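Thread: "does anyone have the structure for this chain?"

Original post by V.I.:
We have the sequence but no experimental structure in hand. Need at least a predicted one for the grant figures.
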Amino acid sequence: MNPPSSPGVPAARPLLTWAVFGVTAATTAAGLLVPGFAPVLVRTDDFFHGEGWRLITPILVNPEGWHQVVFNGVMLLLVGVIAERTFGRARWAALYLAGGLAGNAFSYVMSDYGAGSSVAVAGLAGGLAAWVLSGRAGLPVPPRIAAGALLAGGAALAALGDNHGAPLLVGALLGTVFLRTMRDVPSMSDVRPTRRARTP
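Reply from O.Q.:
Generated one for you, tokens below.
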């Protein structure tokens, strides 16, 4: 049975995932259609000259074309629904923002000037990897090995300068902290998207 959907506990309905998907779709569309909109949000060296919002706003737009739009949108829905049902809305938001901040900060260190929501989604994926590895998801050994491989891949990506590695690792660390403080951690059978959501 799914726990109640209050901000601090696992959510029956993944409303935050869909809300973030909608906002990101809207801001991405504006970035693709409205001249001058995306350049205000993406990573540029103006971050080092007082435009501090560029540490987080790059996750609001996917300016590299429809392949980025579709991939990041699909991944947000696939990963976000499970993460929201597992960690709840407040922790989901923390994982998403931590991933975005870590990915963008790493990008600035590597002089990677662009944008995209995938780094924030990587934060969610890292949190889920920690959940699977902990055994609390109730999954057999192969998925746990895959989760470990994902985090090992995150370390490799970071070492290679890819901006998705850092948010994966930060998400896993934060997810581990959350799992230690959560009173009730649902299993995969409780949070799978096909399960009919229960209300409080």
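V.I.: this helps a lot. The radius of gyration is 17 Å.
O.Q.: and Residues 1-9, 196-200 have pLDDT under 50 and may be disordered.
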